[in-house]
Amino acid sequence: MTKKLMLILLSILLLPLSSLVMAEKTDPRNMVEMPAKMQQHFLSNMRRHLISLDAIIAALADEDFEKAADIADNQLGMGKRHQCDDDGHKNQHKGVDHKSMTKGLGKDPKNKGFGKMMPPEMKAMGMQLHHAASDFAAVARKGDQQESLKALQKVSTTCVACHQTFRVR
Known about the structure:
Blueprint: H1 3-26, E1 30-32, H2 36-61, H3 65-76, H4 98-101, H5 114-117, H6 120-140, H7 145-165, E2 166-168
Parallel strand pairs: 1-2
């Protein structure tokens, strides 16, 4: 095999890797560093938010405003403690080994919620999401489809803004 052919093959094999490296360098979002287990739990929490949002949309499609409001209150709203709180995750999810997840994060790891790991702007966006979800629930309980959709759009706008501003590693 000639050197030229080897270089061409090597270039072809490395091209996807170079694209990944370039994407990493050109991603304009702010990087939020978290320990691996905290990151895994955080991203799982974000996926649960998407599942909740999807369930709310399905309930609205069925004109089940009470169900949509309950999902918003119980899964996204301010009615419960959230990971965005400084100590919110200590009671958030049963069955999660919070101690090992937050190992090495300070004197009292069981009191470390996502809020302790987030920059203030990200934390504010997270809390804005929870407030918007509670506001949506109140609107949805009135049974007006159009107003409910407008209120839900404020929830999704907050999600989009945060995901466009931050990334986690």
